[in-house]
Design a protein that fits this description.
The complex is a heterodimer of chains A (about 160) and B (about 190). With about 160 residues, chain A is an alpha+beta fold. Chain A has two helices and four strands, in the order H-E-E-E-E-H. Chain A has helices at about 20-60, 105-150, and strands spanning about 70-75, 75-85, 90-95, 95-100. Chain A has a two-stranded antiparallel ribbon. In chain A, strands 3-4 form a two-stranded antiparallel ribbon. In chain B, about 15% of the residues are buried. Chain B has about 190 residues and is an alpha+beta fold. Chain B has one domain (about 45-185): Helix Hairpins, CATH 1.10.287.370. The radius of gyration of chain B is 29 Å and the shape is rod-shaped. Chain B has helices at about 5-10, 25-30, 35-85, 130-190; strands spanning about 95-100, 105-110, 115-120, 125-130. In chain B, strand 3 (about 115-120) and strand 4 (about 125-130) form a beta hairpin. Chain B contains four helices and four strands, in the order αααββββα. In chain B, the strands form two sheets. Chain B has a two-stranded antiparallel ribbon. In chain B, strands 3-4 form a two-stranded antiparallel ribbon. Helix content of chain B is about 65%, strand content about 15%. Classes of the chains: A alpha+beta (about 160), B alpha+beta (about 190). The interface between A and B is medium-sized, with 31 and 32 residues.
Chain lengths: ~160, ~190
């Protein structure tokens, strides 16, 4: 006998009508979709930060001072120039603030961000799993009820 | 269809969108109740097409709205480089920050020069002299602004026509309901 879901008030799933079960199923479906979307977005953000770390490491490598590069001035305008102050970077720390950091602190900053995201992702995953379990339980009971209805109807 | 003016029925807006005919007198379109369904269906089809065109025009407009500030920025940049190139006796270098990544900027030194590189998309980048670049960007900006204007015009025209078709559908439907009532009353009288 599937146990009633723990997060809600302990309503026995079997006591619910067919319609209520269908509603709960829909709600759970939506929640799982939302959470999966957020999960994807967090993953993407994490990948971007990891990319930043790699870029910083490559650029601040001392062999690159004074090297010729094509500098992007806008999304479609480039100008040849030379790298300068390769150990200085400006990081967008949010809410319109940019902080100048050297390569070590920049790498540290991004590593911290990646770790925070990792933790959030793990938490999110647990929540999604819990919800899918609930969804499966609801689906099971829904099936049982439908079969019971069909058995009763022909009589 | 005799009461519909010929010019109105065939009017096509500059981008080739046909004008929807307005149903002044339902009887001109529908002689009997059997035709009602096919007329309603054709109205629905028209509505679908108009709505589809509206969607694609909206998308085009949104894309243009994004591109225009970009082109404007690039144009201003090239003008600035051109100006600093021409006024300086000796060209002094400028230290600038450029975008390495979404949240990461790095420093670089540039010297104003008479050519710039423009990214044209589709993995194509060309070198232009400053004047050529300014000309190219100005004309791009102008055509983008013009397209935006015509998109706005189209959207208005489309919305008008969508309303017209919806009103038509309502009128034909109401006429049908009324006819049904009349027929039923006539049958009862017999």
């Amino acid at each position: 006998m599937p146990a009633s879901p723990q997060q809600r008030t302990t309503v026995d799933l079997k006591a619910l009508s067919l319609q209520q079960l269908a509603e709960i199923k829909q709600q759970l479906d939506q929640e799982i979709e939302h959470l999966s979307e957020s999960f994807q977005k967090l993953r993407q953000a994490q990948a971007k930060f990891e990319e930043c770390i790699v870029t910083v490491k490559k650029t601040s490598d001392s062999a690159n001072e004074g090297k010729d590069i094509l500098v992007p001035l806008t999304s479609s305008l480039y100008i040849p120039g030379k790298t300068t102050e390769i150990d200085t970077f400006m990081v967008d720390v949010g809410t319109g603030y940019y902080v100048e950091k050297d390569s070590k602190s920049t790498i540290l900053f991004f590593t911290n961000k990646v770790n925070t995201l990792k933790k959030n992702l793990i938490d999110l995953e647990t929540v999604v799993q819990g919800k899918s379990q609930n969804l499966r339980a609801v689906e099971e009971i829904l099936q049982e009820k439908m079969q019971a209805n069909q058995a009763n109807a022909p009589q | 269809m005799s009461s519909i003016k010929e010019s109105e029925a065939n009017y096509v807006n500059p981008r080739g969108i046909p004008q929807a005919p307005f149903v002044e007198k339902v009887e001109d379109y529908v002689q009997s109740r059997d035709q009602v369904e096919s007329i309603l269906k054709s109205f629905q089809d028209m509505l679908q097409k108009y709505k589809f065109m509206e969607m694609s025009t909206l998308r085009r407009e949104a894309g243009l709205k994004e591109k225009i500030p970009d082109i404007q920025k690039t144009l201003d940049m090239v003008k600035f480089l051109d100006a600093s190139c021409n006024t300086d006796g000796e060209l002094e270098s400028i230290t600038t920050s450029y975008e390495l990544n979404d949240t990461l900027y790095a420093k670089a030194k540039i010297t104003p020069r008479d050519t710039v590189y423009l990214w044209l998309g589709a993995n194509v980048m060309l070198e232009y002299t400053n004047e050529e670049a300014i000309d190219l960007l100005s004309s791009k900006l102008k055509s983008a602004k013009d397209s935006l204007e015509s998109c706005k015009e189209d959207l208005e025209f489309l919305r008008e026509n969508i309303t017209t078709v919806e009103v038509n559908t309502a009128r034909v439907y109401n006429w049908d309901v009324q006819k049904r009532k009349e027929d039923r009353e006539a049958a009862e009288l017999k």
